[in-house]
Amino acid sequence: MENKTYILKNVLLETGFEYDNNEVIKTKTDLFCIEVENGKIKSIKANNPHANGIDAKGHLMLPAFKDMHAHLDKMWFGLPWEAVSPKRKTVKDMIAYEQKMIPEWLKTSIPRTEKLIDFLNAYGSDYIRSHFNIDPTSGLDSLKHLEKALGNKKKSVDAELVAFPQHGLYYTDTLPLLKEVAQMDSVNFIGGVDPYSLDGSVEKPMEQIVQLALDNDKGIDIHLHEMEDSGMRTIEFLIDRTIENPKLKGKAFVSHAFALSRLNQKEAEKIAERLGDAGVGIVSSVPFGNMIMPIPTLRKYGVEVLVGNDNIQDHWNTFGSGNMLQKANLIAELYGYGTEWQLSRTLVFATRYKLPLDDKGNQQWPKVGDDANLVFLNASCSAEAVSRISPVTSLIHKGHIVF
User: Fold this and answer.
1) What's 261's DSSP letter?
2) pLDDT digits (tens, 9 = 90+) for 342-368
3) I want to staple 307 with a disulfide (CB 3.0 to 4.6 A). Which of 83, 112, 190, 349 is the partner?
């Protein structure tokens, strides 16, 4: 927290919607002065362009963005450019490659993780859910290096950490290590990956993951790329266990969940209702092509859909832009969210459901006492920001001006 006070003047905030025959046609805005003290918003007042403060130049202020699926510990970022190899076709191919390369990557992982955090900051993100490898090759080093980098960058980012057994619980001897890190306060979620294809069973590894989460008061975030019956069985398993253990509600997630992209509408509605009732969320990097996820259907049933960049220049994929606003834009384009109201709502996928205006146009953010986690954009409103992927001009994290 930044222990100081300052004023931001000429700050553009959304104040409501303008309607024509009950249809939103425009977002109303006005300029304000925002006082920040000790990392919090102390006051919000009518604009005084002559105030002794930092000039926001009429740029739009929004909640800082949240990247909810990243791998800060394991990527090529900061190394010379290299595209994905056509020789590595399966998850097991990737595991063999990681077992060879992780010792080399770890030598420079701390400064490269810091560079990647800077990269995400530049696009307005100040909060990251990051997975870290836990496996016999990495040992505890991926976690230790990630914690060091995050400590060095504490003025610009907060993070929640997922212990990620990328190499399987049993395919490699990872379970003892996972049990060890599950007890650590810095670890927030127990992860997993493709239990059937890697460990030969849905139930055996999933039972371990769920029990570790329950025993250590952690959440769950499972990588699930499997698109056959095993993928749906894994999702159903987590739903059932979350219903049986209500303390997991709102803390259990399936990342990717590509099996959902293979469902017809009736099937998607059925599983979305179950996910919503159980409080199991889906984390997506918003794939397209032959894998369109049923995000509108999931949201219809109240499923928390979180979004992240996932791969930013790594051996799995190189297409992660690092820009959460670009992810919101992709969702708007994929699902046809083109009106002023729809575009303004789509911003939720960049901010984890924090919006300046509620669905009826009542201002709900910012409020006095809110954390000063703020992003400024050269845009007239959030709808334009999503549609145009407007440039970020400044980021403030807990009152600290990052840039």
Assistant:
1) G
2) 999 999 999 999 999 999 999 999 999
3) 349
At 320, the pLDDT band (50, 70, 90 cuts) reads: confident
* Token pair of 285 as six digits: 């990097």
Alpha carbon distance 269, 260 (integer Å): 10
User: In angstroms, rounded to a whole number, what is the distance separating the alpha carbons of residues 59 and 62?
Assistant: 10
* Cα–Cα distance measured from residue 249 to residue 219, given in angstroms and rounded to the nearest whole number: 9
Distance CA 178, CA 188 (A): 13
Q: Where are the domains of the chain?
A: 5-58+354-401, 66-322
DSSP state at residue 154:
T
Amino acid letter, 84: V
Q: What is the pLDDT of residue 315?
A: 82
pTM of the model: 0.96
Distance of CA 222 to the CA centre of its chain: 14
CATH number of 5-58+354-401: 2.30.40.10
Domain 66-322 has CATH 3.20.20.140: yes
Residue given tokens 């954009």 in the structure block: 377
Helix (H) or strand (E) holding 307: strand 305-307
Q: How far apart are CA 276 and CA 92, in angstroms?
A: 33
Compute the distance between CA of residue 309 and CA of residue 200 in angstroms, rounded to an integer: 29
